[in-house]
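thought: user wants a sequence for this fold. calling inverse folding tool.
action: design(structure=
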């Protein structure tokens, strides 16, 4: 097995490498003066089972292109099997036509990755599970439950807990987690009037005097979570926490979250944390390196991946 790290999330790649006790293979990604990306694998990969670790997070297009040219270099270097390990799959929110003459960019990006030469994809909590079907190669979409459940049990033991989905699209995820920790479920009926601005309309479920845990796949501008947290507090919640897999956190998101009534926002390291995220008083990070590392090990050994998801 060979592990190759792109530049998007070196820290996570090193943590996966430590988990697997396998060093990162030597590779180099450079730029020409016009910013074209050039990848070079600096050791033999002929006949190897190679895992390329790269989140297509900000700067999304650069990181995506790095992934594509690295896969191409591996394919031309005769790697036996190439798995694109994409902890955060950018472009996932463009998974359907939202109006006439608009793209389905998630499908386009999936095509690019398979055309480049990926034989498999390993990813985490896709925005919509159906995106797995956009890849015409085997795709493992890990769920976050094995990371969250021990944390929920440790942190909220004995609390009157309600799992809250901040929108209707996240109900399946919230319901599954609620069932595992024996918590109730609440749903926020969110209407988004225009892109990037969210508005809370209604809370379905009883949250008064209870500890509310918002769960979602992505926090981007933070608008969804902050509005939801405020709405829950207005309805008498005892305290509000949020667990979100991918901390995109663009624009003024960190400032918005630190000023919100949210007691804590827990994200994972699927996206590398910025300095602002690291110093924010109510943002914490959990690592998905053991989860991804174990999945990589099992793929390499042709063992079940679903067995680790519970
Ligand atoms: C939407 O369907 C997603 O699950 C997230 O709720 C959304 O992407 C969060 O965006 P923002 O933080 O900008 O409100």
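)
observation: tool returned 310 residues.
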């Amino acid at each position: 097995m060979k592990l190759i790290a792109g530049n998007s999330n070196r820290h996570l790649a090193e943590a996966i490498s430590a988990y697997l006790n396998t060093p990162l293979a030597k590779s180099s990604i450079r730029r020409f003066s016009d910013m074209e990306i050039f990848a070079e694998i600096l050791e033999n990969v002929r006949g190897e089972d190679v895992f390329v670790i790269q989140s297509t997070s900000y700067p999304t297009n650069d990181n995506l292109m790095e992934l594509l040219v690295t896969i191409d270099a591996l394919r031309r270097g005769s790697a036996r099997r190439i798995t694109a390990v994409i902890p955060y799959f950018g472009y996932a929110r463009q998974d359907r036509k939202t109006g006439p003459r608009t793209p389905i960019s998630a499908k386009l990006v999936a095509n690019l990755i398979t055309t480049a030469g990926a034989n498999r994809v390993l990813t985490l909590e896709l925005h919509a599970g159906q995106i797995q079907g956009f890849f015409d190669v085997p795709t493992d979409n890990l769920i976050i439950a094995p990371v969250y459940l021990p944390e929920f049990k440790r942190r909220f033991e004995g609390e009157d807990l309600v799992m809250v989905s901040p929108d209707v699209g996240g109900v399946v995820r919230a319901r599954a987690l609620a069932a595992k920790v024996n918590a109730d479920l609440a749903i926020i009926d969110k209407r988004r009037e225009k892109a990037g601005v969210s508005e809370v309309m209604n809370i379905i479920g009883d949250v008064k005097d209870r500890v509310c845990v918002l769960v979602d796949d992505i926090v981007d501008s933070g608008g969804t979570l902050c509005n939801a947290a405020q709405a829950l507090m207005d309805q008498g919640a005892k305290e509000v926490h949020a667990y979100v897999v991918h901390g995109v956190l663009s624009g003024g998101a960190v400032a918005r979250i630190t000023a919100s009534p949210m007691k804590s926002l827990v994200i994972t390291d699927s996206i590398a944390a910025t300095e602002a995220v690291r110093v924010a008083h109510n943002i914490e990070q959990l690592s998905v390196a053991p989860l991804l590392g174990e999945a990589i090990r099992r793929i390499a050994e042709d063992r079940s991946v679903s067995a680790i998801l519970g």
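thought: summarizing for user.
answer: Here is the designed sequence. The chain has two domains: 2-143+290-309, 145-286.
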